[in-house]
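Design a sequence for this backbone.
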């Protein structure tokens, strides 16, 4: 409240008409929904054998070296996106393209979207996967299901709940579009966000880092928190962020943490309960939110009528 002076400096058109106090409270409400989803996932997985994720990581000394090395690489990748985006005439790249979730006053161009998606895919998905796949198999990277039936159940239930929640909170999302726009825009949104943020998130954090966090901490709770913080860290510079003053910068960083720690935590929780990084990617990322909420952004950027 003191930093904001009664208003927020962010470029978030989707929230422009929402009262200031509601915007402040929304991260807390979102966290409540996150904990409810955790309860649902725990109940859905109560009868299955929970995979030993820590056993998939190497010895502690190796896990520590790999963890800190990958985090340093992620920092370099983030900085690279902040440099390459503006160098090409675009905005700084983060794990989200400008306009994701909340819209923006200047929608991204097609070139900006494709460049962002390809950069993230190569830097945060392809290269880390190829490096670690040399030493670890698909199961050790949380990329192979040990209980497909239960994984599918978790994916479907979580996706339905989260989709319904987002359609209510974001006033319809893709339902504001006509049938042709949905038929053309939804698959395109799915594909672009899948390569631009879903796969990078899944590989970097949930396939590689999460087993090592659990190995190093020995605590599922701490691992969930670390997963949430890492996910927030990968969104430090969002399209809506404002860095025009020290107070704006602090507010931007605070709202990144408040807005992304929760989603990162539920992604981690789903991965720990299923041992399958694909479960969170399909149940709580690819469709909800990026098809449900972001299809209108893609429709606008690609001129789909």
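Sequence:
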């Amino acid at each position: 409240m003191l930093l904001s002076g009664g208003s927020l400096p962010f470029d978030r058109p989707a929230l422009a008409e929402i009262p200031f106090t509601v915007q402040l409270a929304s991260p807390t409400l979102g966290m409540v929904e996150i904990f409810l989803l955790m309860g649902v996932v725990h109940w859905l997985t109560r009868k299955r054998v929970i995979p030993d994720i820590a056993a998939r990581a190497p010895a502690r000394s190796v896990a520590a070296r790999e963890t800190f090395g990958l985090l340093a690489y992620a920092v370099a990748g983030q900085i690279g996106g902040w440099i390459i985006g503006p160098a090409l005439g675009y905005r700084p790249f983060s794990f989200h393209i400008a306009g994701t979730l909340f819209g923006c006053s200047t929608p991204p161009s097609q070139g900006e979207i494709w460049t962002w998606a390809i950069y993230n895919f190569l830097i945060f998905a392809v290269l880390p996967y190829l490096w670690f796949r040399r030493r670890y198999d698909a199961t050790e990277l949380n990329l192979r299901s040990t209980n497909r039936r239960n994984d599918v159940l978790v994916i479907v239930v979580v996706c339905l709940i989260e989709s319904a929640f987002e359609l209510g909170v974001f006033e319809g999302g893709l339902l504001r579009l006509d049938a042709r726009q949905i038929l053309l825009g939804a698959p395109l949104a799915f594909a672009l966000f899948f390569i631009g943020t879903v796969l990078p998130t899944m590989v970097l954090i949930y396939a590689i880092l999460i087993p090592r966090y659990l190995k190093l901490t020995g605590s599922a709770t701490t691992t969930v928190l670390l997963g949430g913080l890492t996910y927030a860290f990968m969104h430090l510079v969002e399209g809506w962020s404002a860095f025009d003053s020290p107070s704006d910068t602090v507010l931007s960083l605070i709202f990144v943490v408040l807005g992304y720690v929760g989603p990162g935590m539920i992604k981690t929780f789903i991965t720990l309960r299923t041992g399958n990084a694909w479960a969170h990617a399909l149940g709580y990322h690819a469709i909800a939110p990026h098809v449900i909420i972001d299809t209108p952004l893609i429709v606008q950027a690609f001129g789909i009528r």
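The radius of gyration is 19 Å.
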